[in-house]
Design brief:
By secondary structure, the chain is an alpha+beta fold. It has helices at about 5-20, 25-30, 45-50, 90-95, 135-145, 150-175, 180-220, 220-245; strands spanning about 55-60, 65-70, 75-85, 100-105, 115-120, 125-130. Helix 5 (about 135-145) runs parallel beside helix 7 (about 180-220) and helix 6 runs antiparallel to helix 7 (about 180-220). The longest helix is centred in the C-terminal third of the chain and has 41 residues, at about 180-220.
């Protein structure tokens, strides 16, 4: 960014701070804004604009994750602390080899305490992208299906089945929020069904190829026709030799 553009952006951000009754002390405590009331340089101008419009800022550190969201007309800061089942650095490294799956639990809320994520490495950008099993279900399923890898399809399906079982347990434990959980469960069930259909089509294609090969090898009529043709050719060859001998 040019110096004049940086100056313009700084003025704009200060105006934002003055025009919004933001919870500045909390924002300072978590490093979202600086002591001079400018936003952290880790945030782009687009990040800041979205944050002020209600989008969530996510901060990861090893197994820990914190999300920050402005509420109540930007006067309150909603903070959620979560814990991942593995270190993020380990997940990102392993994602270069194959897709990684990880569970994130919300520490203070047992009602909706589990989020399941898929981490897919993009060879073109050299970056790993995180997909939520519920919010990004269509995209994640499409990416995995496009790989045409039966083992990967099976791994993904097993993770979906685990999530479905977890959601079913939550319905039994907390019937008062069953409607919300059922919505998530329907999404998971739809993706499981999609994977089953893909696997069935792949099996049909495989069986079709196998049966065609088997026909070529074991068809009795074809085998006998080939023998007759071979015997006929051998007979014609013998006749030709006899005729050649007669001429001599």
């Amino acid at each position: 960014m040019k110096l004049e553009d940086l100056y313009t952006a700084t003025i704009k951000l200060k105006n934002i701070m003055q025009n919004h009754n933001l919870p500045t002390e909390q924002l300072k405590n978590f490093g979202i804004i600086n002591d001079d009331h400018t936003f952290s340089r880790k945030l782009s101008e687009d990040d800041i604009q979205k944050f002020l419009q209600g989008y969530t800022i996510v901060a990861d550190n090893d197994k820990n994750r914190a999300t920050f969201q402005l509420t109540e007309d930007n006067t309150q800061l909603k903070i959620i602390f979560l814990e991942r089942d593995r270190n993020l650095s380990q997940i990102l490294d392993n994602s270069k080899e194959k897709i990684q799956y990880s569970d994130i639990k919300e520490l203070a809320n047992k009602l909706t305490s589990l989020e399941k994520k898929g981490f897919v490495y993009d060879n073109e950008t050299g970056k790993t992208v995180e997909f939520d099993f519920i919010k990004n279900a269509n995209e994640l399923t499409a990416i995995i299906a496009d790989k045409k890898d039966p083992d990967e399809l099976s791994r993904y399906k097993n993770e979906l089945l685990k999530l479905k079982s977890y959601l079913q347990d939550k319905i039994d434990q907390y019937p008062e929020i069953a409607k919300e959980i059922v919505n998530d469960m329907n999404i998971v069930s739809r993706e499981i069904s999609t994977l089953s259909n893909i696997a069935a089509r792949e099996n049909q294609l495989t069986e079709g190829v196998d049966s065609q090969i088997q026909l070529n090898v074991n068809d009795r009529d074809m085998y006998e026709d080939a023998n007759r043709n071979r015997e006929k050719q051998e007979g014609e060859s013998e006749d030709m030799e006899i005729r050649r001998g007669f001429r001599r």
